[in-house]
Structure formats: structure tokens, C-alpha cells
Known about the structure:
Elements: H1 2-15, H2 18-24, H3 29-38, H4 44-52, E1 58-67, E2 70-78, E3 84-90
Antiparallel strand pairs: 1-2, 2-3
Amino acid sequence: xxxxxxxxxxxxxxxxxxxxxxxxxxxxxxxxxxxxxxxxxxxxxxxxxxxxxxxxxxxxxxxxxxxxxxxxxxxxxxxxxxxxxxxxxxxxxxxxxxxxxxxxxxxxxxxxxx
Length: 114
């Protein structure tokens, strides 16, 4: 019981920290536009154009988050055969955070990223 209480308390404290609040708070459109205009991040359209070069699918949902002072897009795509995948793109350059963790349906090759 003590372990469960400690875990719940830890979870509650972590959800109340400013970093996790910033990550879950949705930015107003004008703030996102300011970030794009200032060059702090790439637009979602730009990032999706890059993504389409190596991963075909229908965008279901997209969110912009800031975590540890880094901006990222969290995407949900519906790909072949109706599979839903989650991808995380670095919002500063529009590229996947980890190329090694791309699903098999999404493969980056040298010509796609040039």
C-alpha cells in the first residue's frame, strides 16, 4: 500500500511541474505562427512535406510540444492497411527525432532527404 501511495504521489507531483504543464498546454495559433516566423521552428506544412518523401499516410492528428526546451511535433498517421502510427518530429528542422525508430513503412533514403 505504501508503494502504491508513493507512486501516486510521485505521479501527481510530476504532473504539476511547469515542464509537464508546458508540454500538455496547447499553444494559441498566433504563438505558433510567431515561432515559425521567428525561425524557432519549421511549419507543420514544411515538416509534412519532408515526411511525405519517405512516409506516405493520412494525417490524423498533430500537436506541437515543448519538452526540455526542445520543440517537437507529435503526429498520428494512418498508413497502409489502416495502421495508425505515431511519429515525433523535431520541430526545428522537420526531421524525425530518431531515424532508428521509424516504422518499417517509413524509410528514409539518401535521395529523399536532399
